[in-house]
Amino acid sequence: MSPTTIITQRQQAQATGKLSYVDTMRRLCKIGLDIVQQRAISLPLHRQLSRIVECRDQIQEDFEQMEDHLTDITKCRLMKDYLEFWNLSMHRSYILSELCRPTIRAQSYRKEHRDLALSLRALCIQSLTETVEAFLGFQNISKFACQSWAAVHRSLSSALLLGILGEPTRSERVQGLLSRLTTVMLELISGVDPGELSEPLVRSVTALQRFVPRTMGEVGESSSSTTSGIGQLSSLSSSPDGLLPYDIVNSIFWGSPDSMSSS
Predict the structure, then answer these.
(1) What pTM does this model have?
(2) Residues 54, 120: Cα–Cα separation, whole Å
(3) Domain map of the chain by residue range?
(4) If you write DSSP's letter for every residue of the chain in order, what string do you get?
(5) What is the pLDDT of residues 126-169, one digit of tens each?
(6) Which residue, of 10, 46, 237, 255, has the greatest Cβ tally within 10 A?
(7) pLDDT in tens, 110-137
């Protein structure tokens, strides 16, 4: 984006008193960096939850101050408006899911924190779902969505986590979104020379197919790392020392348990 475009958008935002696409993305990036930095600091549980709530409220406050076309797709008029709507929606939802990530295992929280943790966990699931939905909306209007590793990674990792958590069996909406995403990814893979395919992409799509109706053909033989990751699913609820959901997603993507990070 050129400096002239940025200046123009800032002038428009000042005129309307609302946050532009650029300003909102800048704020989201700042919150994303804060999330990463906070994970390197050991905080008491109550403070950790409090910090999540603070960031959630800030994101919601920014949402209420954004330009109309960024919050309501019916207000989009130009192609630029649609691109900004879906891209911002995808990244905003992903940041929210990452923010609430520590509450995935909310049932393990002590009673005094459990209700809040469960509420934030529900927001995490909703945000993962909306990340996939936004990616699908984005790729409907622009090939760039499937050419951007950031966009592909965010949609696939969100979809895999939803599958690992068993959401497709509880929600027809989630099952439908994962089926649509699988179709898009299979079409993407089919158009690439096998020798040029990204291994993380192939492993992820192969794993994703396990969470959608079995009418779709497999990408190919599952790698041992993918099989290993999927094999951990049945033991998640019964083995507190087993791999955490985010660990499994990382093992599917990168194929090495040694490189996994704790959720």
Answers:
(1) 0.82
(2) 12
(3) 7-259
(4) --HHHHHHHHHHHHHHTSB-HHHHHHHHHHHHHHHHHHHTS---HHHHHHHHHHHHHHHHHHHHHB-HHHH-GGG--SHHHHHHHHHHHHHHHHHHHHHTGGGTTGGGS-HHHHHHHHHHHHHHHHHHHHHHHHHHHHHHH-THHHH-HHHHHHHHHHHHHHHHTTGGGT-HHHHHHHHHHHHHHHHHHHTS-GGG--HHHHHHHHHHGGGS-TTSPPSSSPPHHHHHHHHTGGGTTT-TTS--HHHHHHHHHHS-GGG----
(5) 999 999 999 999 999 998 999 999 999 999 999 999 999 999 99
(6) 255
(7) 888 889 999 999 999 999 999 999 999 9
Between CA 261 and CA 12, with CA 136 as vertex, the angle to 5 degrees is: 95
